[in-house]
Amino acid sequence: MGIILWLIIGGVVGWLASIVMRRDGSQGIILNIVVGIVGSMLGAWLIGPMVGAPSINSGEISVGSLLVSFLGAVILLAIVNLITRRSVR
Questions:
Q1: Which pLDDT belongs to residue 25?
Q2: CA distance 89 to 60
Q3: Rounded CA gap, 47 and 87, in Å?
Q4: Distance from C-alpha of 41 to C-alpha of 55, rounded to nearest angstrom
Q5: What is the per-residue pLDDT across 28-38, written as a single tens digit (0 to 9) for each?
Q6: Distance CA 59, CA 49 (A)
């Protein structure tokens, strides 16, 4: 049951981050899930220690963990935008 919840929340976080970064038209559901999960790991590494909140990958689902995961996904998409020569919005 944990992996299903992990995929669903990762997909939602990735989808919301892609809407904020205006990349929603170029991503599918699989890429949204990947962005959500990898962004969650990035957020746990960069932002988690600063605010003291874990990511959704740790198994704890709270407002802080969702926020850390969302910010990590936004940072990941900003890096992808810079690499693909798109402007960060």
A1: 65
A2: 30
A3: 23
A4: 7
A5: 888 888 988 89
A6: 16
For the chain, give every domain's residue range: 2-83
2-20 helix and 29-46 helix, angle to the nearest 10 degrees: 90
Complete DSSP assignment for 27-67: --HHHHHHHHHHHHHHHHHHTHHHHT---GGGT--SHHHHH
Reference 47, options 19, 67, 22; nearest CA is 67
How many Å from the N-terminal Cα to the C-terminal Cα in the chain? 36
Q: d(Cα 50, Cα 34) in Å, to the nearest integer?
A: 24
| Residue numbers of the chain with a pLDDT score lower than 50 | none
* Three-class SS state of 88: coil
